[in-house]
Specification:
homooctamer, 175 residues, alpha/beta, 52% helix
């Protein structure tokens, strides 16, 4: 097995479905990664150890996902000087605004780079962009993904131009 | 020196002015306490140790104050089974809503009892109410404080009835 | 029947399903409790009496749950010097932000210790942590619960490491 | 002294400056009123008695002002079937959103009619509108006040048309 | 048909289901009322006329319900000196916070008394409380309703005490 | 085909269902339009070109719809001096408050005229109102649409007056 | 005097300082305009008449500014089919979020195009962009203004490149 | 001059004071950087070119600061596959919540890593953490900075322990 470069951690297995998109994206980009469940509040020992040992274990980026009083990314950032990215998880009561503010409003000196609520895929791309600074193959993959994204939008635009709104909406419902 | 029963910690010395009111309140109620500065993000070792050793050191309640991504109370709660009370500190950007949500929306299993934004005095009273369950003198002090609070409001009401709104407002401005 | 130490009150029986988790948690921790429905607005006599007599009836902590203009915890705190914990109940219009602010922004002198929106279980644990200061058996139960919580997260992490994301997610769907 | 018809209560004398505008407005409209300080949390006995006896004492409307966890209007509404109007007081941390939500989100069955944050004058006018249903002189006063308000705006519009923006702004600065 | 004393208006027939509760409540209290649909934005002539003629037509209170940029209550208040009560209607995008702020933040001089989001029943009770100042029968009805509300809560509390949480929850599910 | 005067663009085909209402409204008003999918973030070349060439291509108004960090309208406004209208799309996490603020809080010098969340129809009417300044037929159509809207509300009011609340609500459920 | 094409109205003369920027901008762009004070709530007759007669009086766009329960733009839109632009005015309690939501969340069928809080200049530019569709000179002026804006930013960038951050900040303080 | 590795851009020179802290931090850490002013809305050509050429010009990270409808970071991310970090700038109307949401809620596929409101220093540290993955000297500097931060907090804690709250607060006021 290849040395993981990105460590994805989440506070609860209820975050796993959202975060699986981060895993898929890293896979597609050829960035070796690992996934684990550690909780800032329920397994503080593991959270601390994970972050404190991450650099020595060869990780280059940590992606931490959590919801509510989402402390996991901040706790990780307290224990490492690796870049830590945060994914605020949507909550049923506040839509994730609580998670977002808990992650993003870090005190001076201890940064977390936060992506959108449930933005697992974007955290993965951002992590890959960091890895790509030393890995031309990943850099190439990111450029292709960007192109593909544009192509997809343009293809949709072309299709809409061709078949019109009504036809397009019907096509969407069939999927 | 008496054994401190309440430990007040805060993430930054910029919180000290607000939290000094907690200290004064505990003093007035005769509850021995200690104050320190430990940061969940800048001194995670100390934050962890503080909470982990609090019970053995004889503390009965921890009051944690922090602002922004206010993780200190949550981190403390992760490392102890003592009751942890949180004081969300007002922030210049969000008025303290960020601090409040970061403190109060804790995951199931790891509680923090949160008081109002900048509510240092109330955290101290709540801590004293907990201490008072085993200390009749503190319980008595709380009852007297409650009575005094009522007396003060009633005295103000009486004064307002006597001198009217205009006189009362003028009296306030002179202070 | 054992003397109840924790009194759980709620403003409406629509809060009962959420609050039943508090009851279960106290049961599991061996903390005797009682549950009732009293409304700060619809049965103010009962709300006042409940809080005013709580100490003499042997209660040590009151847990008050309410939603919207959630005044029950504040009203209870007005009539007792026992520690009062508040559980803001989720609302369909505001997700519970209204309940949270109504509970937590108490004026100086009359504290309520507020847990997360719908955080019934955490209120129960916090109440048990307070009771535990005088009851070694409850203290022991809390420590075990904390350990069990960590074990559960670690077991999930181990399982995820073993069977991978895809397998884990499939396992979750089967439940 | 005339029988007061409107009772203005507030939770703290810090609300008095704002609420003095309510008093002035009622005075101008010839509606007899009284003002007092009673706190839902610090003097719950007085708050309850005030509301419970208001009707027998001849009051027709209660105006309750409070900030933060603003329970005073709700507590008053719990103890009377007189109309209760609420004035949410601006708070330094949340601008008064906390006061507003605490007042307005009352449970079904116990209404409070809430005006704007710091809207003391509007609460007084609304109280006068209620009193006016039985008092033609007050009704007349309200109609004249409404006309005067329109005249004032129209006079400003005329002045702006006459002297232009620059002149008007200079005139405002001189005041 | 009896002379209506309360006029219920709403901006759209999509508000009718919520507002039918206001109608039922007034009916139960024996307060004659009328219901109509007028829109501040789509039928401004009718909105203006409704409010301007309300007093002469014998109405004593106007209840206006609207959602989003909820201007109906404010427009009504602009054209009458009768008391105007506002019911902010829940919106799918903002939960009704937009409706609430649009209604409650009225400028000085033109009050609206606002109840909770979707609080149709409370608006009706408040209107009845206003009507009751001149109608002893309605006043009596309000007192009975208040007593009944208390009795209902107390009956639920008694039932909960008798059959316990589990039994109570099962009973609720059967309904 | 007639020269399109209004260009509707959206950041994703997931916005198409909402925006189809804009298309229908323009169709009904006889305003020639075109629809396309261009993303400020995924196809920045196309977004830029679309806006930069819009005037030369004969467009008079651009309607841009986007959700979340909704930059499309702002990007369009950066590249043209045609009027740009924005439709903030509802988001699952924040109800569209994020989209609204991202669109409306434009810096001085580069305006976007924003309508309500998901307000596709209103954007179309506003665009038609702009077109109508040079096209008497569209102006006429707008006046008729306004009249029809009033007629519809009045018809509903008449029906409600005739059959009462209960009958009306039953009629609505049948639809 | 030239026929005004843009009518600027505001609910209160306290909005005039902010709105004077709209006037200056229209002046600079050579768009004839008029300014007045009309209140949706205090002078509803004037507000209605203003909007109803605007088209016949030769206006092409209405800019309406208001704060709090900001109904003026919506009331104007109810009485005209001219494009109505709204400027939500900053409020001391809510920063203008109340004004923004009151303006932007208009019901289907009656649009207001809203710019940023206190965005008077942007409303003027947007109005000019609408006027420019029939006036090549204004169109030209808008293009020059856009170029000048770019030049100014580029000049600042050049100056920053030349003298560095420290020098630049010192230069700013001297102004 | 050394090849800059981090490019700091901001939408307006009013952001410079806040962002100068990012510059100082990078300087202290020995990370070569450049600073410029480019606006997504006022100089879209420059914004696009800056991002599109950043990689070829040798930059490894872009830090983009903007306020209000803060599109600069998102526009940059649209034109590069380098990691883009966003600093939401505090606004006078919304405290920066608008800036934060405009930056962080990016659509899937185009990430921005957002730090706290006005969090210029944290953006710089995060950028340095990314640079440090290939530069041992920067990595070393980050570790020392982290240690120094801890030392500072601990020194404050020691001082507080020594001289007490009163002395400490007096010392702060003297500064």
């Amino acid at each position: 097995m290849e040395q993981p470069l990105v460590g994805i951690i989440m506070g609860s297995d209820s975050d796993l479905e959202v975060m699986s998109e981060a895993a898929q994206t890293l896979e597609r980009l050829g960035v070796p990664f690992e996934v684990s469940i550690v909780s800032a509040h329920r397994t503080p020992v593991q959270a601390e150890e994970y972050a404190a040992q991450a650099e020595d274990r060869g990780l280059r980026v940590i992606i931490a996902a959590a919801g509510g009083a989402a402390h996991l990314a901040g706790v990780a950032a307290a224990w490492t000087t690796l870049p830590v990215l945060g994914v605020p998880i949507r909550t049923s009561t506040m839509g994730g605004l609580d998670s977002l503010l808990s992650m993003v409003q870090m005190p001076s000196g201890v940064p977390v780079g936060v992506v959108s609520i449930n933005g697992a895929k974007n955290a993965a791309i951002l992590a890959a962009q960091i890895v790509a600074l030393r890995d031309a193959r990943v850099a190439q993959g990111l450029k292709e993904m960007k192109r593909r994204q544009a192509d997809e939008v343009n293809a949709k635009a072309a299709r809409l131009a061709e078949i019109g709104i009504k036809g397009y909406l019907e096509g969407m419902k069939k999927q």
